[in-house]
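Re: duplicated header lines in exported structure tokens

Our pipeline writes sequence and tokens for each protein into one text file. With two proteins the header for the second block appears twice in some exports. Here is an export where it did not happen, for reference. First protein block:
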Amino acid sequence: MARKRMSPAVIPSWKIKNAGFTLLEILISVVILSVGILGVTAMQTASLSSAVFTRNLDNCVYVASDALDRIAANPANIAGYTGGSYSDFVVTTTGGCGASSSDE
């Protein structure tokens, strides 16, 4: 059954006053939805950054634990594990990396 279209003289005044109001509601809803999506995206980025930091920290703990286990397993060679002067190593650079660029 087809609906009949009302002529402008028959359309109630409240329908004329509300013309375009639904469009405004949709625009506001889209803005609110986009702000929410941006918030979720920011939380996801922060979560991934935190996960990478935690993984790196876990690797550091693993390396330190391994070093301590090696020291505990071989206490006779504990003198070999002590730190000391590390002045006898050389760093070589290639390309455009020179000492003058890092002295700023």
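Second protein block, exported in the same file:
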Amino acid sequence: MKTKIVRIGNSQGIRLPKLILNQIGAGSEVDLEVDNDRIIIKPTNKIRDGWADAFRQMAINSDDKLVDKETTYTS
């Protein structure tokens, strides 16, 4: 896909179609990387981002117990 570089205030930018942003799961922010002669755009909002830290903190606070008791089903 080709797109034009446009002036945005004192900066320059490109317009990204909503379809492309949806395909990569991007929200309102993205991460940019420069790799040799390429610009790489990645979504910043990762699913489960920060969960490991939250679970670690729950374990420290002894808040990592099941809410519901286990149920055993028999037929």
